[in-house]
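Render this sequence as a predicted structure.
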Amino acid sequence: MRRGDKMYGMAHKRESLLAQIEAGVLDDSVPVASLLQKCIVLGGKAGSEKMRDWARQELNGYKVDMVPPYRHVHTGLMAIFTNRAGFNGMHQRIVPTMFPQQIRDILAELGVDMETAVLAGGIGELEALAKRDEGEHHLMPPWGDVMVDTLQKHLVTPDTRVKVVYWPLSDASLRGLLVKVRTALAELIAELIASTPESQDVPDKAAADQAVQYVITGERATVHVTSQHAHGSGVNIAVAPSDGVTVSGAGTAIGSQTASGAGSSVVGSQFASGSHNSLTGRDGAAVDPSARQGRWARLRRRGWMVALTTILGGIAGVAAAVLGLFTWLDWTPWWR
């Protein structure tokens, strides 16, 4: 490669989406929302719906029951109590023990955690909120209206009014959440860089999907090795979720066997039996299913009436042969 071509290749690599996101993650002045938008494009190029879904939900907001753990912030539930006219507001913390046991049981069944703020909003909204530098932010729980009605019925006097309930979130906690999202994005990009060849600008779909799984759940894809039965000296190895399946040695694979994808191979003298099974290659041989079945099994497949007729016909044939032998020997059986 000429020097000019090499320099062009390096410049082209620096301009790739993956490289742009990597540089943006390391620059605190670049909004997280901008990086997530590039992730949507990168996920589209890689064919990874998981990456696009994650970036899209971070940008547009999550459903309450789908918010990832790093968006859960421990806090307390506060309520503003006023007089009937709505004046003389007083802020008071609400704890579960203030409710009757029946109400607490209902809240537990609904999965309501009063002291954990679930930040489901879009990342752009949270970044804008953090820029206000207000010291403390008031976030409304999704079940806030129901909680107001419950408090009004069970905890206040007729002369008191519950104006609103909210989660108090400090500015430091909010900025900490944004750091967590940027960190999750950094982990995603680090995983993609580690699994993408240097000469390749766009990660593979499988690598992108596994990276998103690791970022969201903290768990890597599990490789399952299954030992399967093989006759003779054969050894069958099935590995998932990898596409490559290798069967080696002389033997017979029993069950549904599939070898697909790059790197898959079938080595040695292999025999396949049963319907819809096939082997290709020099040493592959398909065994006629009827040769491995018993006579009764073949008859049973033809129907019980046909099987019965065949059996009775066979018995009659044997009897006729015996009588013919007796006649030829000029011997009279004892039952005559």
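Summary. The two ends are 104 Å apart (CA to CA). The longest strand covers residues 160-170.
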